[in-house]
Amino acid sequence: MRYRSLGSEGPTVSALGFGAMTLAPGTYGDVSERQAAETLLTALDAGITFIDTADIYGAGQSESLIGRVLRGRRDEYVLATKFGGNQDGRGLLVPGLGRPEYVREAIDASLDRLRTDHVDLYYLHRLDPTTPVEDTMGALSELVTAGKVRYAGLSEVSAATLRRACAVHQVTAVQIEYSLFSRAPEREVLPACEELGVGFVAYSPLGRGLLGGTIRGRGELESGDWRRGNPRFQEGNIDQNVALADSVAELAAENDLSVAQLALAWLIHQGTVPIPGTRRAENVLANAAAADVTLDKELLLRIEELVPPGAAAGEKGNEAYMANIDR
């Protein structure tokens, strides 16, 4: 496992992290406590020192699992969690979750579930349209001063919002969906991160599983799997996206890699920290191996030819999901 600094002033983390959304029941289907614990411990033992979660994953269950399973090993990993992503019955953001008073309430609840006295990286999950980002960043800055949070982050924000936030307090990391299938951050956000010394964390780095090498169609998604409502998994789109993933898999096989390893190695090469999630310990080990993969110029060119920006069919989220994103 290789390690890198997250942003110009942030912590040292493994080149590849672990996204713990998958460990909460009900998001990607059922997962037992035993299986979730085994997967989480395997990640830590494999040298993955960057664990990412959020208070809304399983309504706090992901945070609680981390608190129980990794209790006594707190000094072995960098812990990131998020607040402000709660949605109403229509899938739209609940207003007011960026208010300073809410930020203070949310961190205390997360710390209690995580069984720790501090979070290393605390993200605003989605920009609150009713609260200026300057006010939210002011509250995060106060939490840093109080020692409850070490670094502040933002998720799914525009380059313009990032610049406004950094004027109040240094943003250590921005987390946005980024993969071979989702290339939008390359236009403005990634250049802004480089300019401002902000680290970039790529969530859904395997295209929500499409680049994992196992999904062949909608029939393989469990009934409770939220991807059933995602445009990229709808009839027609999913066939095109699976075919696209198959072409990447062929290229990966030529280089003795899995499609997931190639996709993750590509993201690491871009200077980002991908945080793939999985419910299976064996997948954790396979993903971790991507941190040691070196991609030469010829291979990078072939990847670009196979999967140029905009190649994936369908938006990355439905109408409500996209309405919650600052663009």
Explain this structure.
This protein is an alpha/beta fold. It has a single domain (11-323), classed as NADP-dependent oxidoreductase domain (TIM Barrel). The chain has 11 helices and 10 strands. The chain has helices at 33-45, 61-69, 100-114, 133-146, 159-166, 189-196, 237-254, 259-269, 281-288, 297-306, 319-323, and strands at 3-5, 12-14, 18-19, 50-52, 78-83, 119-124, 149-155, 171-177, 199-203, 273-274. It has an 8-stranded parallel sheet, with helices on one face. It has a two-stranded antiparallel sheet with strand order 1-2. Strand 5, helix 3 (100-114) and strand 6 (119-124) form a beta-alpha-beta unit. The model has no long low-confidence stretch (mean pLDDT 95).
Helices and strands, with pairings:
Elements: E1 3-5, E2 12-14, E3 18-19, H1 33-45, E4 50-52, H2 61-69, E5 78-83, H3 100-114, E6 119-124, H4 133-146, E7 149-155, H5 159-166, E8 171-177, H6 189-196, E9 199-203, H7 237-254, H8 259-269, E10 273-274, H9 281-288, H10 297-306, H11 319-323
Parallel strand pairs: 3-4, 4-5, 5-6, 6-7, 7-8, 8-9, 9-10
Antiparallel strand pairs: 1-2
